[in-house]
């Protein structure tokens, strides 16, 4: 593990350095979406498909282009670490990433620029919160498909630096509450690091909602006649959670989250969504649902929290009083 921080938690409470989180996106990562787009980086080729979800992502891309962020941070359930929360800390990463479950859909030649200064700041802030942290400095590291799919679908031009964060799974051996408490601390640390470094950042939580899925796929995989949510109960749970997220009903969201995870094997268990909500300080605002749809039975919601617009409207309202 890294050396203890030179900064205390209190010191991280100093006035921010001008940075801010511009927006957050719930950005699920089924490899099918990249496969359907046929980008040059992906070897398998398709006949399209999953148009509703891809159109939702198209609206997110336009928003991100307009925001012009310095960096996109993504927390991925498929970069699983047993000891501590890890941050990508290699300036340039490239290689071939293959989905181990769907290798016939996703063989992606990735190239990305990592914001290593922000990685250092996030790691230090997380250590100050009492979390176990590691920086990933292996130049040959193979980036997981969860990180890549979300980033590609949000910004296929790859012209914005990124910062990947792992899913630390060990706290779940103790309890759901311990695990989610860690993600809240990680989110708070991330926000402080962004503020302190002056970054204008966009966040991405790379997870589906319900995650029970079929164990057989159609031939071809993009046969949209076969796509549906795994069960009516799973659909009803997704709709319930989307409504809570849309309207910022955070107390109820956190109260029912353990049952949602248990009943639907929800991928939010990995902590990506809780990390992002905590980093955004559980904003009291309406979220925008860009799309919801199935991929091999899982429930995928693409959602946006436009914090910049919320702050502008709030300032305008206060001036009008």
Report on this structure.
The strands form three sheets. Strands 7-2-8-1-10-9 form a six-stranded mixed beta sheet, sandwiched between helices. Strands 3-6 form a two-stranded parallel ribbon. Strand 9 (about 290-295) and strand 10 (about 300-305) form a beta hairpin. Helix 3 crosses helix 5 and helix 6 packs antiparallel against helix 7 (about 250-265). The protein is globular. The chain has nine helices and ten strands. It has about 325 residues and is an alpha/beta fold. Helices cover about 40% and strands about 20% of the residues. The protein has helices at about 30-35, 50-65, 115-130, 145-155, 175-195, 230-245, 250-265, 270-280, 305-320, and strands at about 20-25, 70-80, 85-90, 90-100, 105-115, 135, 160-170, 200-205, 290-295, 300-305. Residues about 1-15 have low confidence and may be disordered.
What features would you highlight for this structure?
alpha/beta, 6-stranded mixed β-sheet, 9 helices, 38% helix, 22% strand, globular
Briefly characterize the structure:
By secondary structure, this protein is an alpha/beta fold. The chain has helices at 31-37, 51-67, 116-128, 145-154, 176-197, 232-246, 250-264, 272-279, 307-320, and strands spanning 20-26, 71-81, 85-88, 92-98, 107-113, 133-136, 162-168, 200-205, 288-295, 298-306.
